[in-house]
């Protein structure tokens, strides 16, 4: 009985955590599909939030690598007058980065749905 209660609480907390980031992320950025993301690349600042090793292996053409761990210290390198396009492996880090950008006054923030794993457009890779 106690084990069931503990498991239920853990599941509720786990689901609540993801719902929270989903809702907060929707306020901070617009999630766009691959086609929309591709159209925005020319006018935007494409930021790859993955680690440097992953970025060097393959990344979206035109993207700059600012790992999520360095993101807060690198905000000054981003312009507020141009769209910011974020991606990581999925969307977890992009959502958190978008929230930081929103708090700093960035108004045009876009996240690639599905992250880099869902990108089929032009890539730069060392292979």
UniProtKB/TrEMBL annotation:
Q: Which InterPro entries match?
A: GlpE_sulfurtransferase, Rhodanese-like_dom, Rhodanese-like_dom_sf
Q: Does the keyword ATP-binding apply?
A: no
User: Which keywords accompany this UniProt record?
Assistant: Membrane, Transferase, Transmembrane, Transmembrane helix
Q: Domain named Rhodanese: which ranges?
A: 40-125
PROSITE patterns xref list: RHODANESE_3 (PS50206)
Which superkingdom?
Bacteria
Q: Which SUPFAM superfamilies has this protein been placed in? A: Rhodanese/Cell cycle control phosphatase (SSF52821)
> For this UniProt entry, which residues form the secretion signal?
none
Tell me the GO molecular function terms: thiosulfate-cyanide sulfurtransferase activity
* Pfam families named among the record's database cross-references: Rhodanese
Determine if Zinc is one of this entry's keywords: no
Return the broad EC class. Answer: transferase
What PANTHER family does UniProt report for this protein, alphabetically? FAD-DEPENDENT OXIDOREDUCTASE, RHODANESE-RELATED SULFURTRANSFERASES
Q: What is this protein called?
A: Thiosulfate sulfurtransferase GlpE
Gene label = glpE
């Amino acid at each position: 009985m106690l084990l069931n209660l503990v498991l239920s609480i853990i599941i509720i907390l786990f689901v609540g955590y993801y719902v929270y980031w989903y809702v907060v992320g929707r306020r901070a950025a617009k999630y766009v599909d691959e086609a929309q993301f591709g159209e925005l690349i020319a006018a935007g600042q494409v930021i790859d939030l993955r680690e440097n090793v992953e970025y060097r292996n393959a990344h979206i053409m035109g993207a700059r690598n600012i790992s999520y761990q360095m993101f807060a210290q690198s905000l000054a390198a981003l312009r507020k007058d141009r769209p910011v396009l974020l991606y990581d492996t999925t969307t977890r880090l992009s959502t958190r980065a978008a929230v930081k950008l929103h708090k700093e006054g960035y108004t045009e923030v876009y996240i690639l749905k599905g992250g880099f794993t869902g990108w089929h457009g032009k890539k730069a890779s060392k292979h």
